[in-house]
Amino acid sequence: MEIREMQARVDEWIGQFAEGYWPPLVLLARLTEEVGELAREVNHRFGAKPKRKDEAPGDLALEIADILFILLCYANVLHIDLETAFLQVMQKYRSRDMDRWTKLDNAPGGK
């Protein structure tokens, strides 16, 4: 699925409710909450804080998807074409960091 389609699906889903999108500051708070949930799960899996025995394991994929949903809402509220923005940011990384990291032999443009 392309990013534009993801944005359209989110817009269609949100559009069925009278409340519509939350304002940008509320979306930022929601994004912070969702990143916190991802951080908690990562800390349980890979960090020093194991879950209690009575806690069910979380789903990292769903936590990341929650973040993506809020980012799509944010882009829609601010009328940002994320697909175009993503292509621009990839070009920035390609030009800025071209020689910054050690390339693998089998990577595109590798040794």
Key terms:
61% helix, 111 residues, mainly alpha, Helix Hairpins
Topology:
Blueprint: H1 3-14, H2 24-46, H3 60-77, H4 82-96
Helix pairs in contact: 1-3, 2-3
In short:
The protein has 111 residues and is mainly alpha-helical. It is built from 4 helices and no strands.
What does this structure look like?
The structure is a single chain. The two termini are 32 Å apart. The chain has one domain: Helix Hairpins (Orthogonal Bundle), CATH 1.10.287. The chain has helices at 3-14, 24-46, 60-77, 82-96. 61% of the residues lie in helices and 0% in strands. It has 111 residues and is an all-alpha fold. The mean pLDDT is 92. α1 crosses α3 and α2 runs antiparallel to α3.
How many strand segments?
0
The number of helical elements comes to 4
- Spell the H/E element sequence: HHHH
Q: Could you describe the largest sheet, including whether it forms a barrel?
A: none
Q: Count structural domains.
A: 1
User: Overall 3D geometry?
Assistant: flat
Write the CATH fold name.
Helix Hairpins
What is the structural class? mainly alpha
Within CATH, the superfamily carries the name: MazG-like
CATH architecture descriptor text: Orthogonal Bundle
How far apart the termini lie comes to: 32 Å
CATH class: Mainly Alpha
Tell me what portion of residues adopts beta-strand conformation.
under 5%
Low-confidence segments: none
Whole-number mean pLDDT: 92
**What is the helical fraction, as a range of percent?**
55-70%
